[in-house]
Amino acid sequence: MTARLLDGKKLAETLRADVKARVAAFVAERGRAPGLDVVLVGEDPASQVYTRNKEKASKEVGMNGRLHVLPADTSEAALLELVAKLDADDAVDGILVQLPLPKGTNEARILDAIDPAKDVDGFHPVNAGLLASGRDRALVPCTPRGCMKLLELAEIPLAGARAVVVGRSNIVGKPVAQLLLREHATVTVAHSRTKDLPAVCREADVLVAAVGRPEMIRGDWIKPGAVVIDVGINRVPAGEGKTKLVGDVAFEEAKERASAITPVPGGVGPMTIACLLENTLLAAIQRSRPRP
Ligand code: GUN
Q: For position 100, which CATH number holds?
């Protein structure tokens, strides 16, 4: 069997076009554009690319996208001061502080300072708590939302399905497990200390890989017919001094066993930004009052 490819690039384009139309309606109704403020601290090359892409994508759909670039030695106090300023600014609907922050910065303290109503990453404990307790007011983390939209595309019935999430991060593993649970899947969260990980993965009708280790999940770990969502984006050497991107799943092997699989690149990655735009619009709608 060769798996069907779940095309995140195409799905993300559709979602972005939809957000763009809804932003235009928002502007017409409320007389202002939704604002997304992205904060980058330091010079991590991957983060520089991600944050530039987020700013650019927000402008493309008609939002007020702003990128704040701060030096790596920015103090925690200065960063908290910027977050407080953005919290207080009524024109700002979404605040995103790019992770990882430079070593020595207390990430939790910074993320906790973001107004939960503007927390378009969905990382604030209030939003994580709302998601865990099944409330639909939560702003839900972008990558997990992207995974769920790709599963919708795969048209796999999630109710009663065995889902295995490999990885337990606050950014992906935990929230995606909550979202699968909300759809009535039977969810196992596996991680680096899980015993006999290949056997656990082989039970999965739906396998979500979010470990950040290049091609760790091999083809024979995949149950025949499973749907595989690969969240990993790992840069590895490709010979002659070049590099390439690979996922957490050994794609060429896995595609011979799975019924559907996301490619890397072009799977989950593009969905993250599209969902960030949707979250920003949602935050703007929830925050604004119609004009009198
Ligand atoms: N670093 C890697 N992924 C993310 C993300 O989704 N949000 C933020 N803020 N930082 C990240």
A: 3.40.50.10860
